[in-house]
């Protein structure tokens, strides 16, 4: 067991375990001698409970400095992602929607008289009948 103090609140325990779990997911080695757990969150909680994760309360200046470092790392990561970003493939002209054509089709559908229910059913049976025969045969 290490001399690291135990967290003084549940909230601090959760924060410490979350940060440690993030480190484990990024490749940090477990501090338990024989980790029988493979989930990073459970492993992190056990490490914190056993005092294997050193921690202390930051001063305001230390916190601001760490925050600035994290923001710089995020900006660099975004720049790197933008550098290696793959452009989307070009859209084929056949997939481009013409708004005027779409409006005309909608108008035609609205103007068309609805079929009576019996005619709808007969038409569906006619088309479905061919497919059903194909599946059964």
Compose a concise summary of this entry.
The chain is mainly alpha-helical and 137 residues long.
Query: Which architecture of the domain at 1-59 per CATH?
Result: Alpha-Beta Complex
The helix-strand sequence is HHHHH
Q: Assign an overall shape.
A: elongated
Please bin the fraction of helical residues.
Answer: 55-70%
Mean pLDDT: 80
Question: Which structural category do the helix and sheet elements fall into?
Answer: mainly alpha
Name the features.
137 residues, Eukaryotic RPB6 RNA polymerase subunit, 61% helix, mainly alpha, 0% strand
Task: Explain how this protein is built.
The protein is mainly alpha-helical and 137 residues long. It has a domain of 59 residues: RNA polymerase subunit, RPB6/omega (Eukaryotic RPB6 RNA polymerase subunit), CATH 3.90.940. 61% of the residues lie in helices and 0% in strands. The chain is built from five helices and no strands. The mean pLDDT is 80.
Task: Set out the fold topology.
Elements: H1 10-25, H2 40-49, H3 60-83, H4 99-111, H5 117-136
Helix pairs in contact: 1-2
């Amino acid at each position: 067991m290490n001399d690291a103090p135990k967290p003084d609140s549940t909230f601090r325990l959760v924060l410490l375990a979350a940060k440690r779990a993030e480190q484990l997911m990024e490749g940090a080695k477990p501090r338990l001698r024989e980790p029988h757990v493979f989930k990073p969150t459970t492993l992190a909680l056990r490490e914190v409970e056993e005092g294997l994760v050193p921690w202390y309360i930051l001063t305001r200046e230390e916190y601001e400095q760490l925050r600035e470092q994290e923001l710089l790392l995020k900006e660099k990561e975004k720049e790197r992602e933008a550098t290696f970003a793959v452009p989307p493939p070009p859209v084929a002209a056949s997939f481009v929607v013409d708004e005027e054509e779409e409006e005309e089709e909608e108008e035609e559908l609205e103007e068309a008289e609805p079929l009576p229910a019996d005619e709808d059913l007969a038409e569906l049976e006619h088309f479905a009948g061919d497919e059903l025969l194909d599946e059964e045969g």
